[in-house]
Write a structure and sequence with these properties.
Distance between the termini: 40 Å
Structural class: alpha/beta
Shape: globular
CATH class of one domain: Alpha Beta
Number of strands: 23
CATH superfamily of one domain: Alanine racemase
CATH architecture of one domain: Alpha-Beta Barrel
């Protein structure tokens, strides 16, 4: 791996003709929107306001705007430290209303003879505040819940305030879970287990018979339709879940023998968490609707078709064919579901069922924004000007220097054609890589001094950056692959105060691309190319895949740091990331605030709730370190040093107090301390 020279971001770039800044052009909000593709993933909720900050429109049928930067500033005045998760509760409500109203609109438009009754799958985000907000917003629509485990069943069952609210129970179910489901039904609640395997059907009926209850249930059908995108294996023959058609026939035969056909109330399918293709969705709905219709004709009285989850959100854009894009709108998804079910039912001449969906990602993704502070940046560029090389220097240094001069001539020689100049640039690049390898080998064998090694490094990186600057005058698509990668070699590293493994685990685990951008200074042209690295000691603790103009990029356009804090926003964080996060390096949950829109407030918002992130004592307790035990052990260490005259008693007391105080600290870096140090440094220099 090439070594890099670190330069403080508070210092001006080296004046050696090798600056890797992006070219400067006229800059405005429209260009900023295009640079960060905010209209692809954020519209109509996120935008760039006239102040050059990210703005939020959380209210439905309202142009009320909230400045994200002002929320961060207010949080800082309350001593709420970064990293900070901001929840826009009104945006959560807005998504619930938009989903339900879209179904109402489609049902009316197509003359569908039944209704929609949605449920929220709590696995997407089990946080109580999120669940309560969704239930409150969905009360008008009789919105229900979905659980997938025993713990989630215990959390959701007490929230069935109305008897006709649906609670869909997915996942594998042990005897305790099946018994709890029957208890819910005995209480008169609309609790429906989705039977995933034939043996679950047998166990559920046996448990109901023991309690002398007539059970109600649904069956997850294993469709032949295969999903699309990252979760395609949720459907098709290889699916982990689902009952095959032959097994469904066994279920029907058993129910007819027992005269219990009314117990089979719901047909369910699920083909993925993020369905990317609307045609795939329609195919699955069509197949499931046929199954429903045929079962109805066999004498069953099924009430519901549950189309599962999968209603997607755009993390980038379908224009570039990335496997996390969707090629439909919310309304098109809903229209496809409603019309397809109606079409099949009308052909088969069976009643239209109640439509259920388990949309979680689409409801929760937008409402959470993670804001992190940038601590420092590392540039891949020499700190010193281009070294002077004489005839007395080693041949390999003279050859590198000659390559530098040759490149200067190519840049000046505008008489050559583009193909000729590109070919010469490619040759120089190959020669530079070869000479860099030679210098590494000579140094390893002891034939090159440390001073000469430094000269070689400066020449090599100066040459690479000069090539990068030269190649910007050519059409990017015409570059040979070797030259195309030069841009990737010169990406800066921006060190940010957060953990990828805690707050953005899907980026590391499944290569999920999340929208990331500065939340301010967007009226200034970003002049750096950067990747984001976190606080963990793991080389995978980084964000190095971003939404690009032509698909995916390995860098993000960022601003050079100055004396003021620099904040980045990570968007669409509300689905799964809160729950999936791990404790790598014992970085725990981040601080969190819940924001509500209010046009009576000066900045159109107020912070209703502030939840503290994990402190060090809490993080340590999760891995079985007791604070009291640690105190005793540290006290013993200090007492031993006092007894041996290594430190004075007063110092011992101070050291123990320091240790105990640190146990109460936030697990993350003290970003506010960094900002204060920069300001003090500037004042001292002034």
């Amino acid at each position: 791996m090439h070594e890099r020279t670190e330069i403080s971001t508070l210092e001006p770039p080296a004046e050696n003709g090798t600056d890797t800044s992006l070219p400067t052009t006229a800059w405005n909000r429209e260009q900023a929107s295009m640079a960060y593709h905010i209209d692809r993933w954020g519209s109509p909720y996120f935008f760039i306001n006239s102040e050059g900050n990210v703005g939020v429109r959380p209210m439905i049928d309202s142009d009320m705007e909230i400045d994200l930067m002002k929320i961060v500033e207010e949080a800082r005045t309350r001593n709420i430290r970064l990293p900070l998760l901001i929840r826009f509760q009104d945006l959560l409500r807005r998504r619930v209303v938009e989903l339900n109203e879209s179904f109402r609109s489609a049902i009316q438009e197509f003359g569908y003879q039944n209704r929609y009754q949605g449920v929220y799958p709590v696995k997407v985000n089990q946080l109580h505040e999120v669940v309560l907000e969704i239930l409150d917003a969905g009360e008008e629509y009789n919105f229900g819940l979905e659980c997938g485990s025993k713990a989630e069943l215990l959390a959701t069952l007490p929230h069935l305030d109305r008897d006709d609210m649906l609670l869909i129970c997915n996942g594998y179910k042990d005897s305790t879970m099946l018994s709890l489901i029957l208890t819910g039904q005995h209480l008169g609640k609309n609790v429906l287990p989705i039977l995933e395997k034939y043996h679950e059907f047998e166990e559920f009926l046996a448990a109901a018979e023991q309690r002398n209850l007539i059970p109600r249930f649904g069956v997850r059908v294993r469709l032949s339709t295969v999903g699309s995108g990252k979760w395609a294996e949720s459907g098709g023959d290889a699916s982990k879940f689902g009952v095959s058609i032959p097994q469904i026939m066994r279920v029907v035969e058993h129910l007819k023998e027992k005269e219990m056909t009314d117990s089979f109330e719901l047909v369910h399918f699920h083909i993925g968490s993020q369905i990317t293709d609307i045609i795939t969705l329609k195919g699955a709905v069509r197949e499931a609707a046929r199954v429903y219709a045929k079962l109805m004709k066999m004498g069953l009285s099924i009430k519901y078709i549950d189309v599962g989850g999968g209603l997607g959100v755009n993390y980038d854009s379908v224009d570039f064919g990335l496997d996390q894009s969707i090629n439909y709108t919310l309304q098109e998804y809903v229209n496809g579901v409603v019309y397809t079910i109606k079409e099949i039912c009308d052909i088969e001449e069976v009643p239209h069922p109640i439509i259920v969906s388990e949309s979680g990602r689409a409801l929760t993704a937008h409402h959470s924004v993670l804001v992190v502070g940038v601590l420092d940046a590392t540039r891949r560029e020499p700190e010193l000007p281009k070294p002077t090389i004489s005839n007395q220097d080693e041949p390999v240094l003279r050859e590198l220097s000659d390559l530098f001069e040759t490149l200067q001539h190519i840049v000046a020689d505008t008489g050559r054609g583009e193909r000729q100049r590109l070919a010469r640039c490619l040759e120089i690049y190959h020669d530079a890589v070869e000479k860099r390898g030679d210098t590494d080998q000579l140094f390893s064998l002891g034939y090159l001094s440390l001073e000469d090694r430094a000269k070689a490094e400066s020449l090599y990186w100066g040459l690479i950056q000069k090539l990068d600057k030269t190649l910007k005058s050519f059409d990017r698509d015409s570059l040979p692959s070797d030259l195309y990668q030069i841009e990737e070699m010169l990406v800066d590293q921006y060190l940010c105060d957060f953990s990828v493994f805690q707050s953005m685990l899907d980026h590391w685990a499944i290569d999920q691309i999340f929208p990331v951008m500065p939340i301010h200074r967007l009226n200034e042209e970003p002049d750096r190319r950067g990747m984001i690295v976190d606080l963990t000691c793991d080389s995978d603790g980084k964000i190095d895949r971003f939404i690009g103009d032509d698909g995916e990029e390995n860098y993000l356009r960022l601003h050079a740091l100055n004396d003021n804090p620099y904040y980045l926003g990570c968007f669409l964080m509300g689905a799964y990331q809160d729950i999936l996060g791990d404790m790598h390096n014992l970085f725990g949950r981040v601080n969190e605030i819940h924001v509500y829109a209010d046009d009576d407030e000066p900045d159109n918002f107020y912070i209703e709730t502030s939840l503290s992130g994990t402190n060090i004592t809490e993080a340590l307790s999760l891995v079985q370190y007791s604070a009291s035990d640690l105190r005793k052990r540290m006290d013993a260490v200090i007492r031993e040093k006092v007894k041996g005259k290594g430190i004075r008693p007063k110092q011992g007391v101070e050291f123990l107090e320091q240790y105990l105080a640190a146990l109460k600290e936030y697990t993350y870096y003290n970003f506010e301390g960094v900002v204060g140090d920069k300001k003090r440094k500037k004042q001292d220099q002034g």
